[in-house]
Amino acid sequence: MSENQKSPVLEHLGELRRRLIRCLIAVVITSLIAFIFYEQIFNILKTPAPPNLNLQAIEMTEMIGTIMRVCLFSGIILAMPYLVYQALMFVFPALTPREKRYVYLILPWITLMFAGGVTFGYFILLPRITGFLMTFGGDIASIEPRIGSYINIVTRLLLATGLVFELPVVTTFLARIGLVSPKWLASKRKLALIFAFILAAIITPTIDPINQTLVAAPLIVLYEMSIWLAKLVYRGEKKAESLAPAVVEDE
């Protein structure tokens, strides 16, 4: 590889390193802010659980580790808009001017959809999943979960639902720049249905079909929404392409 070929690669690696460092600094700052309010955050995370929930810390270092995990999780959520912005800015130079305009348009929607996913997980999924886990087999033995186990379930579920809700935004952007088509998305509908239930089984800690369906159903709806949005923006793209030859002929 010549020096001229190495230079762009090194520049991209250097840019990636700078973006990652900025993301790391942002997460550290937001995690420190979350540490100040960790008691309030714990109370928020415990609210969807049944009122008779009695969390326990078995090991001496369990509370410290759990608090750090909660602060890191909260920091990632708080920094998510900035993290997405840095990721988009990394690929920004490779985009056309038209595609760059689309990036600015989807930035607010990325934040809103992530917040919507976290809200859905908090108010819809968590009460049902924790209620099921706290009552299933309760007539045989009293269930008093470890705080680390509870927090791990809650944070994993909220983060996963937040990321999954980004699907319509991502597919709309890809359809708008021509990387995917509505026809292609529609042809993968059966595969998406299977993948939705597989992902639901991974996200939910329970094995009952009701809770898994509660997770899979929004995924299927989001995929259908993605197809509809892709048709909306892709049609406009096709129209613009069809008008282009006419403009050239007029000139």
What does this structure look like?
By secondary structure, the protein is mainly alpha-helical. Helix content is 81%, strand content 0%.
Could you name the key traits of this structure?
251 residues; mainly alpha; disordered C terminus
Short description:
This protein is an all-alpha fold. It contains nine helices and no strands.
Largest sheet: none
The poorly predicted ranges are: 239-251
Put simply, the count of helices is 9
Instruction: Give the mean pLDDT.
Output: 85
- Report the β-strand fraction as a percent range: under 5%
Helix and strand composition category: mainly alpha
Assembly level: single chain
- Tally of extended strands? 0
Distance between the termini: 45 Å
Percent range for helical residues?
A: over 70%
Taken from the alpha-carbon principal axes, the silhouette is: flat
